[in-house]
Amino acid sequence: MSGERTVGTACVIGGSFAGLLVARVLADHVGRVVVLERDDRDHGPLPRPSVPQGRHGHFLQPAGLDLLEGWFPGLTASAVALGAELASPGRHQLYADGVPVDFPDVTMLIASRPFLEHQIYRRVRALPNVEFRRARAGGLRFRGDAVDGVALRPVEDGGGEHPEQVLAADVVVDATGRNSPLFRWLGQAGFPVPAVLRHPVNIGYTTALFARRHTAGGPGVVCALDQFVTSEPSRVGGDRPAGAAVYAVEGNLWQLVVMAYGRDRRQVTIDELRALAAALPEVFREAARGRPVGEIARYFYRAGVYRPVVDAASFPTGLLAVGDSVASFDPIRGQGMYSVARQASIIAEFMAGGGNLATGSRDCIQARDAVVGELWAETEGALDLG
Question: What is the pLDDT of residue 235?
């Protein structure tokens, strides 16, 4: 940790990927950081009920990985030692309708989202001025036009909750995700509520894990994405596939993901996944030949959502939102995790430059929306395959 402590207490609501990164950068400049997380995080890298999309494939763009390595030196090497894969040039492939297309000469870290989150969680939890509380946030407290604290209820194993408490805080960061209650809380307190922009997506994800059959020397290609742009390979239960991805993840497993525009919660079978993989490049066929591990996971994503703060002067000071609470993107474009890392870096840069987040949060919000707005514009300009 480094830097002058310009804020006494900061509260981060939500301990997922976004909340963890923000807690890390706050720790350099805040006397005390309290992370409110309703899920039990101490049982290892397991999928969490509050992150249903966490069981599906994710990847972190190289610029995002560079940021993580800066905040957590040695993270990449440690993750690889525990089973993650480094997708260096030649070990990742991009296809369009089964035909290889150019991919930048970059290196990516390949692992499941629960695995990556757990590696970050362990490091953030070890910081001396960061405290995790298992609790559910129920609202915000304000003093004039500044946030003043968070109403919370501690959560017990089995779902029990204690009476409401109030945590006093100079800064509050909402990282609760796409179903964030933040803007409802703002309206209840009499503050203007930012407009919501939506980008229809309507894409269903089906993900299955397969044991890797060959381990000597590891696989050649460790991640691949095939986007179906002009052709229509075998339909999955009548839905039109948008693409397929495969990742060599920890535990000596392949993670095979099929993305299809169409119906919600379609019960796709292992045989259907294998039939689709049989029409794809070899890395997909190889993954689907393995022994299925666990149950198939399904997730349906209706729309990308962006909540820009057009009038920052009307937004409470000391209050920010990050991650999917601000913007969630079409998952097929792989912008979500990079966007989160970039938003955390904006907060870090603001405080490192002498900014006081409790009083200057509106400037930080404007810098955040400049970056997120660019990503959102890219998404709206993307080809609609649905």
Answer: 47
Q: What is the pLDDT, as a whole number, of residue 237?
A: 47
User: How would you label 369-384 residue by residue, b for 16+ Cβ within 10 Å and e otherwise?
Assistant: beebeebbeebeeeee
**Choice among 184-193, 277-286, 374-383 with the minimum mean pLDDT:** 374-383
Backbone angles phi, psi at 86, to 5 degrees: -95, 120
Residue 266, pLDDT > 60, answer no
Find out whether 372 and 327 touch, Cβ atoms under 8 Å: yes
| Chain mean position to CA 359 | 28
The pLDDT value given to residue 131: 97
Smallest CA-to-CA distance from 131 within 162, 167, 161 is with 167
Distance between CA atoms of residues 213 and 10, nearest Å: 48
Q: At what angle do helices 113-125 and 17-26 cross, to 10 degrees?
A: 30
| Domains with residue ranges and CATH for the chain | 7-57+116-196+308-380 (3.50.50.60), 75-111+198-302 (3.30.9)
- What does the alpha-carbon distance between residue 361 and residue 173 come to, in Å, rounded to a whole number? 10
Tell me the whole-structure pTM to 2 decimals.
0.90
